[in-house]
C-alpha cells in the first residue's frame, strides 16, 4: 500500500474504530476479492464492535492499494460518507503498470477506475441478468463519442443501480468508449442546497490531483461551468453517471455537452434537457429461480436445501429484486423467521419488514410509497383510485374515463404521468392503451387505502364491475367500455358515470338495456385464465386456490378470491383433461390426452413425478382425501384404473374389469374404496388397498325399454360423486341423475334433468342435499336430491359447461366451460334466485310506443311481457307438451303457439283462455303466423307441408309441393305466401286455394333464408351452397348470383330504398350488395381476428336496415351495428349468452329485442 494511503488510515484510525460496523463492509470487500473468508472469521472472533473494527483496519494495513480503495468504496455504500471523506485524499493514484488481469477477467486498472469513480461494488448477493446488462451496454455504445443521455428507468427496487454498475464492469466498454473514466454520483431527491453540495463534492473529487486548490463553487451555475470545464479538459471521453434522479430540473445542472447515464423511476425525466437520448426499461419481475438463488446466497444454503416457505416468499415478493433482497438480508440475521416474514408479506404488513443497513429504506412500505409521495397532490388521489384495478387484467382507458368522469385525453395524460414514474405499466393494443399495476404495487396500494376503500361505494362498484367483466377485455372485437357500463344495475356508480359519458358523446351509438332489472349477477368472479376450452377446475381444501386445465395444454393456479394468477405451467404435449389438488394442497396432479400423468408442486410449479404406464388418454385423476399419504387414482381410455403412491416410481395397483374407456374415478370419503364410471355402461366399486373389484352396477339397465336387452343399449356413464358420509353414490349418464345405496347397490332415486341436453358433470354439495349438474346447453342446475326438485338454474357460460365443483365447505361452487372462462358462484345467492328462462323463439309487436313480447317461459308456459316495463301481463298454465313456437296477432287480441307434440292452439290475450286447439302435425311445430285479418293461422313443422288454418271456421288448406322440410315462410300481399325449403326451392302460393302459383329452383343446397324487397317486385334467397341470389317475381331465372361467401349464407335483407341487399354467413361475415348490378359494395367485417375467433361469434342469424338506409344491425354471437356507407362497426352489444337466433327491430330503429341461448331477454333502446 502507498505510504500516503497508509498514513491516512493510521491518522483516522480512531474515528473509524469508534463508528463502523464491520459486517456489511466486509461483505463488500469479500465481493471485491480483497478480503478472504479466513480474515473475515478473524474479525468476527473479536468480542466488541470496536475490537472488530480495529482488527479489520490492521488487516487492511497489510494489503495493497486495492484494499484501500475497496474499503473506501464500502464506507460510501454503507452510508459512512463522513468517514469516507476523511480517507478521500488518501486514495492511491492509478499507475499504468497496474493493468494486469485479475481472476474474473477485469483488469486491476479498470477496478481502480470504477473505485475512484465511486461506482458501487456488486452487492454481497448478486445474480446475473445478462439481457438487461447487455441492453444498457448497447445504448452506451450508441452514444459513441457524442454527448447524450442514456436513461435506465423502472419501478422502485427493480435493480436499476446494480444493473448499471454491472454494465460498467466491462473492461472493453471502458477502455474503448470511456477511457477518461467513470464518475458516479448518487443524487436522490434534492433541493437546490442539496444539489449544490453534490456538485461541490463532485468538482472536489475531479480536482483532487490538481496542484492549484480552488474554492468550492458558490452556486449551481458556477458549479455547472466548473464541471463543464473539468469534463472537457481534464476528463474528455468520460461517463458521468447520475444515480436515482427524481426531478428533471436537477439534470439542467449537468447539461454540459458530456455523456451522461442516469437511473430514474421517471421515464420522462430527460424531457427538460437537449441532446441524443436513449432508454432502457428495467422490468420489475425476476424469474422464480432467480429469486430462490438470491435467498440461497443470503442464507448460505443450496436451493434444494431451502425450506418450503422460500418458494412462497419468492412468489409473494412478486419478482421484485428489492423485496427479495430485503427479505434475504433479514433472514441472514434472523434465520428462524421464514414463516414470520412470509406471514407479513401475505398479510401486507409491509411496515414490519424492516431494513438491514445495506438498503436505503427504513421499511418495505417506504420503498414502495416514496414514489407516490413525490407525485403532485392532485395526482395522488387518482393514483389511489387505481386500487380498483384487478390483478392479471389489463384495463383500457375508458374504464378510468368512467371512474373519473373525464375525457379520454385527460385520463391518458394522468396515466402517462404514472407510467413515466414507473408507478403503472402500459400496453398498446392498436389505437387503445391498456394499463396494469405490478402485483406488489397493487397489494401495497390496496392495503394503504383499505379504510377508504371500505367506505367508497364508487370503488366497490368499479371493483365488482371489473371482477365480473374483466374476462371480456381480451375479447375481439374489443368491447365498448361505456356500453358495458350501461349494462350495470341502475344503482351502480359505474352505470351512472357511463350514462353521463354516453349523453355527452355525440355521434356515438349507445344502447340502454331497459329490462335489465330482472337479471341478477349470481356469480362473484369470472376469470379467463386459458386460451381455449377449460375442461376441469377444482378448489384447494382451504378454498384459497383454484387449479384449472384445458385444451391449451396448460395448468393454471390462481387465487379463488381475486383471480390473481399464482402459477402457469405448460404441463403436457396435448390437451389436459383433469387436474386435482392433494388433500394438503401441496401438489396438483394433471392427466392428459398425451397418455401421461404428472404431479406438480402447487407452490413452485416444479414437476414432482411423471407416470407413463397408461396406453391411451388419461381421462381423470384424483388424490385421496386424507393428508399424510399421497395416493393418486387415474383412469384411462385403455379401460384401466391405476393407483399411484407418490413416494414410489411405479403404479401401486391396477384395477382391471371395465370393457371400455373409463371416464371418471373417485375415492370414497374414507379412502377405502374407489368408484369408476365407464363407457361400457357400468359403475364399479373397488377396494383401494387391494385393487379388487367389490361391486358392479349396470347403469344401462336403467335406460333400456321393456323389449330391449341390456347389450343393445349404449350408455356412456360420465361421472360420479360420493355423499359426504360415503353411504351414497351419485351417478350421471345421458340426461339422468341416479342415486345408489353403496351397501346394497340399490337405486334410491333418479331424476331426468333435461330432455334437450346431456349432463356433462355432477358434484355433491358437502351438505348432501344439493347436487350441481353441468349441462351441454351452457347452463348449470342445482337440484335438491331429497325432494327431487330443481333449486336453481345458473346462466352465464356461452358454451358447453365441462365441470362443476363445490368448495370443501359448500359455500361456493365453480364452473368451467368451452367459452374459456371459469365462474365462481355463491351457493346461497344462487339458491335464492328465480330468473325466468325464455326460449329463443318469440314474437314482438311494436304498438303505439309500447313493446309487446310473446315468449316461451320454462318450456311449457307462454308469457306476454311489456318490454317497456318488464311486467308480465299474462302467463298461461303449463302445457302438457313443451311449446316450440308462438306468434301474436297485430291487434294484440290473440296469440297462438305450436307444441312439440304437433298441436297448435289459439288463445285470447285478455285472459289467456284457449279458444281453439288443432292437432295439426305428428312432429314439432316450427313456425306459426297470423294473417293480417287474424282469422287464419299459417304453420309449418318438420315436414314438407304448410297448413293454412282458419281457426274461427275450423277449416284447413294444405300447401303441398315441397319435397323436403319447410325452412320458413312469409306472407305477401293479396293472399299470397312465399315459402322456402331444404329442397333448394322457393314457391309462391295462393293461400285461399292452396295452389302453387310460381316455383323457383333456386339453389343446389338448402334455402336458409328469403327476403322480399319493400316494393314487392323482387326477393332474395340465401343458401347452404354459400351463395345468395336476387330474383324478380316475374322471371324464373335469377337476376344476380352473389358469390364470395366462404360459408353457408344464413340470412339476407333488403334496404328500405330497395337499392341494397345485406347477406350474412356462418363465418360471421356480412356483405352489402348493389341490388341493381349485383356488385359487392362492402364487407362489413373481416372473416377472422386474433386467435382465429370469428368476428361475429359464429353465425350471422338476422339482419335489419335502418329506415334511412345508413345503418345495419346484425345478430349472431352478439349484436352489432354497422355503418352501411363505410362498412365499419358502430357498436357491439355483448349479451350474457350467445347464439342469438333473431332480432326484432322497431320501425323507427330505436328499439331492439332478442333472446340469447341462456334464455335472457334483451329489450334495448337507442340512447
TrEMBL record:
Pfam short name (any one): CARD
Gene3D superfamilies per record: Death Domain, Fas, Helical domain of apoptotic protease-activating factors, P-loop containing nucleotide triphosphate hydrolases, Winged helix-like DNA-binding domain superfamily/Winged helix DNA-binding domain, YVTN repeat-like/Quinoprotein amine dehydrogenase
Keywords for the protein's UniProt record, in alphabetical order: Apoptosis, Repeat, WD repeat
Molecular function GO terms recorded: ADP binding
Gene Ontology cellular-component terms listed: cytosol
Residues annotated as domain CARD: 1-90
The keyword Repeat is assigned to this record: yes
Any one biological process term the GO annotation gives: regulation of apoptotic process
The keyword Repeat belongs to this UniProt entry's keyword annotation: yes
WD repeat residue numbers: 527-568, 569-610, 611-654, 655-696, 794-826, 918-950, 959-999, 1000-1041, 1042-1083
Protein name: Apoptotic peptidase activating factor 1
Organism: Cyanistes caeruleus (Eurasian blue tit)
Amino acid at each position: 500500500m502507498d505510504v500516503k494511503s497508509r498514513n491516512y488510515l493510521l491518522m483516522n484510525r480512531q474515528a473509524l474504530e469508534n463508528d463502523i460496523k464491520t459486517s456489511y463492509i466486509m461483505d463488500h470487500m469479500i465481493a471485491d476479492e480483497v478480503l478472504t473468508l479466513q480474515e473475515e472469521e478473524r474479525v468476527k472472533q473479536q468480542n466488541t464492535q470496536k475490537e472488530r473494527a480495529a482488527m479489520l483496519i490492521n488487516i487492511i494495513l497489510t494489503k495493497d492499494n486495492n484494499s484501500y480503495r475497496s474499503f473506501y468504496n464500502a464506507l460510501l455504500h454503507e452510508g459512512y460518507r463522513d468517514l469516507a471523506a476523511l480517507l478521500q485524499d488518501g486514495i492511491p493514484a492509478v499507475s499504468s503498470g497496474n493493468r494486469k488481469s485479475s481472476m474474473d477477467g477485469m483488469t486491476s486498472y479498470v477496478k481502480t477506475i470504477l473505485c475512484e469513480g465511486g461506482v458501487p461494488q456488486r452487492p454481497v448477493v448478486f445474480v446475473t441478468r445478462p439481457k438487461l446488462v447487455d441492453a444498457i451496454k448497447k445504448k452506451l455504445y450508441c452514444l459513441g463519442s457524442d454527448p447524450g443521455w442514456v436513461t435506465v428507468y423502472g419501478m422502485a427496487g427493480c435493480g436499476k443501480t446494480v444493473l448499471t454498475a454491472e454494465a460498467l464492469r466491462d473492461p472493453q466498454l471502458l477502455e474503448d468508449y470511456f477511457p477518461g473514466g467513470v464518475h458516479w454520483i448518487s443524487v436522490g431527491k434534492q433541493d437546490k442546497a442539496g444539489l449544490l453540495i453534490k456538485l461541490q463534492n463532485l468538482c472536489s473529487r475531479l480536482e483532487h490531483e490538481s496542484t492549484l486548490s480552488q474554492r468550492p463553487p458558490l452556486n449551481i451555475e458556477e458549479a455547472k461551468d466548473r464541471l463543464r470545464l473539468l469534463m472537457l479538459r481534464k476528463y474528455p471521453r468520460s461517463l458521468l453517471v447520475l444515480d436515482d434522479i427524481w426531478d428533471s430540473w436537477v439534470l439542467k445542472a449537468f447539461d454540459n455537452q458530456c455523456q451522461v447515464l442516469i437511473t430514474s423511476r421517471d421515464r420522462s425525466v430527460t424531457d427538460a434537457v437537449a441532446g441524443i437520448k436513449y432508454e432502457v426499461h428495467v422490468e420489475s419481475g425476476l424469474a422464480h429461480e432467480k429469486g430462490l438463488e438470491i435467498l440461497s446466497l443470503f442464507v448460505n444454503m443450496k436451493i434444494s436445501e431451502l425450506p418450503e416457505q422460500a418458494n412462497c416468499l419468492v412468489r409473494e415478493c412478486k419478482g421484485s429484486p428489492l423485496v427479495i433482497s430485503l427479505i434475504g438480508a433479514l433472514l441472514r440475521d434472523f434465520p428462524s423467521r421464514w414463516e414470520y416474514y412470509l406471514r407479513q408479506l401475505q398479510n401486507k404488513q409491509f411496515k414490519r419488514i424492516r431494513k438491514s443497513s445495506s438498503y436505503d429504506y427504513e421499511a418495505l412500505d417506504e420503498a414502495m410509497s416514496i414514489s407516490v409521495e413525490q407525485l403532485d397532490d392532485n395526482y395522488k388521489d387518482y393514483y389511489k383510485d387505481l386500487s380498483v384495478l384487478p390483478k392479471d387484467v389489463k384495463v383500457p382507458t375508458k374504464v378510468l374515463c368512467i371512474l373519473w368522469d373525464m375525457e379520454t385525453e385527460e385520463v391518458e395524460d394522468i396515466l402517462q404521468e404514472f407510467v413515466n414514474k414507473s408507478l403503472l405499466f402500459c400496453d398498446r393494443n392498436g389505437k387503445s392503451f391498456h394499463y396494469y399495476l405490478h402485483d406488489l404495487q397493487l397489494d401495497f396500494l390496496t392495503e394503504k387505502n383499505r379504510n377508504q376503500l371500505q367506505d367508497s361505494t364508487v370503488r366497490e362498484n368499479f371493483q365488482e364491475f371489473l371482477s365480473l367483466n374483466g374476462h371480456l377485455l381480451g375479447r375481439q372485437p374489443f368491447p365498448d367500455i361505456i356500453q358495458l357500463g350501461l349494462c350495470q344495475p341502475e344503482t351502480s356508480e359505474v352505470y351512472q358515470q357511463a350514462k353521463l359519458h354516453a349523453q355527452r358523446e355525440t355521434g356515438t351509438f349507445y344502447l340502454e338495456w331497459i329490462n335489465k332489472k330482472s337479471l341478477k349477477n349470481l356469480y362473484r368472479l369470472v376469470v379467463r385464465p386459458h386460451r381455449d376450452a377449460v375442461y376441469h377446475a377444482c378448489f384447494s381444501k382451504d378454498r384459497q386456490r383454484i387449479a384449472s386445465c384445458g385444451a391449451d395444454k396448460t395448468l393454471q393456479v390462481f387465487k379463488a378470491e381475486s383471480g390473481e394468477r399464482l402459477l402457469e405451467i405448460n404441463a403436457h404435449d396435448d390437451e389436459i383433461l383433469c387436474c386435482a389438488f392433494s388433500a394438503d394442497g401441496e401438489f396438483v396432479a394433471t392427466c392428459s390426452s398425451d397418455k401421461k400423468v404428472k404431479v406438480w408442486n402447487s407452490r413452485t410449479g416444479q414437476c414432482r413425478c411423471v407416470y407413463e404406464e397408461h396406453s391411451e388418454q388419461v381421462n381423470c385423476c384424483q388424490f385421496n382425501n386424507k393428508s399424510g399419504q399421497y395416493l393418486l387414482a387415474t383412469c384411462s381410455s385403455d379401460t384401466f384404473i391405476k393407483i399411484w403412491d407418490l413416494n414410489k416410481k411405479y403404479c401401486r395397483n391396477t384395477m382391471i374389469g371395465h370393457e371400455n374407456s373409463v371416464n371418471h374415478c373417485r375415492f370414497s370419503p374414507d379412502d377405502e374404496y374407489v368408484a369408476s364410471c365407464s363407457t361400457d355402461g357400468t359403475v364399479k366399486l373397488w377396494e383401494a388397498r387391494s385393487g379388487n373389484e367389490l361391486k358392479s352396477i349396470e347403469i344401462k339397465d336403467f335406460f333400456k325399454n321393456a323389449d330391449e336387452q341390456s347389450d343393445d343399449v349404449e350408455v356412456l356413464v360420465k361421472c360420479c360423486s360420493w355423499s359426504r358420509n360415503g353411504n351414497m353414490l351419485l351417478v350421471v349418464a345421458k340426461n339422468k341423475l341416479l342415486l345408489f345405496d353403496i351397501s346394497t347397490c340399490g337405486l334410491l332415486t333418479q331424476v331426468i334433468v333435461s330432455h334437450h341436453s346431456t349432463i356433462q358433470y355432477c358434484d355433491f354439495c358437502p351438505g348432501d342435499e344439493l347436487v350441481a349438474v353441468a349441462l351441454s346447453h351452457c347452463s348449470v342446475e342445482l337440484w335438491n336430491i331429497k325432494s327431487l326438485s330443481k333449486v336453481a338454474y345458473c346462466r352465464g357460460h356461452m358454451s358447453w359447461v365441462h365441470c362443476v365443483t363445490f368448495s370443501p365447505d359448500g359455500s361456493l361452487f365453480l364452473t368451467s366451460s368451452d367459452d374459456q372462462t371459469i365462474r365462481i358462484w355463491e351457493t346461497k345467492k344462487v339458491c335464492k334466485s328465480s330468473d325466468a328462462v325464455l326460449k329463443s323463439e318469440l314474437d314482438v309487436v311494436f304498438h303505439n310506443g309500447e313493446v309487446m313480447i310473446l315468449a316461451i317461459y320454462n318450456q311449457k308456459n307462454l308469457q306476454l311481457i311489456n318490454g317497456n316495463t318488464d311486467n308480465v301481463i299474462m302467463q298461461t298454465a303449463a302445457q302438457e307438451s313443451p311449446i316450440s313456437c308462438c306468434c301474436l296477432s297485430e291487434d294484440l287480441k290473440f296469440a297462438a303457439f305450436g307444441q312439440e307434440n304437433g298441436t297448435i292452439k289459439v288463445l285470447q290475450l285478455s285472459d289467456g283462455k284457449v279458444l281453439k286447439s288443432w292437432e295439426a302435425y305428428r312432429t314439432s311445430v316450427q313456425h306459426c303466423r297470423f294473417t293480417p285479418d287474424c282469422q287464419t293461422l299459417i304453420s309449418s313443422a318438420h315436414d314438407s307441408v304448410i297448413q293454412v288454418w282458419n281457426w274461427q271456421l275450423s277449416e284447413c288448406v294444405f300447401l303441398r309441393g315441397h319435397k323436403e322440410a319447410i325452412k320458413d315462410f312469409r306472407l305477401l300481399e293479396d293472399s299470397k305466401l312465399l315459402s322456402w325449403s331444404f329442397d333448394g326451392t322457393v314457391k309462391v302460393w295462393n293461400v285461399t286455394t292452396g295452389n302453387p302459383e310460381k316455383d323457383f329452383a333456386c339453389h343446389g343446397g338448402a334455402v336458409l333464408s328469403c327476403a322480399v324487397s319493400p316494393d314487392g317486385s323482387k326477393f332474395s334467397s340465401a343458401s347452404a351452397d354459400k351463395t345468395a341470389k336476387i330474383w324478380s317475381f316475374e322471371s324464373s331465372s335469377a337476376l344476380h348470383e352473389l358469390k364470395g361467401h366462404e360459408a353457408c349464407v344464413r340470412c339476407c335483407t333488403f334496404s328500405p330504398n330497395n337499392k341494397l341487399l345485406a347477406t350474412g354467413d356462418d363465418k360471421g361475415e356480412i356483405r352489402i350488395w348493389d341490388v341493381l348490378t349485383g356488385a359487392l359494395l362492402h364487407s362489413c367485417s373481416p372473416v377472422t381476428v386474433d386467435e382465429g375467433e370469428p368476428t361475429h361469434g359464429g353465425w350471422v342469424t338476422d339482419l335489419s336496415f335502418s329506415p334511412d338506409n345508413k345503418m345495419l344491425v346484425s345478430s349472431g354471437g352478439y349484436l352489432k351495428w354497422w355503418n352501411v356507407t363505410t362498412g365499419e362497426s358502430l357498436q357491439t352489444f355483448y349479451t350474457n349468452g350467445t347464439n342469438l337466433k333473431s332480432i326484432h327491430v322497431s320501425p323507427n330503429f330505436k328499439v331492439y329485442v332478442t333472446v340469447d341461448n341462456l334464455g335472457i331477454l334483451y329489450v334495448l333502446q337507442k340512447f
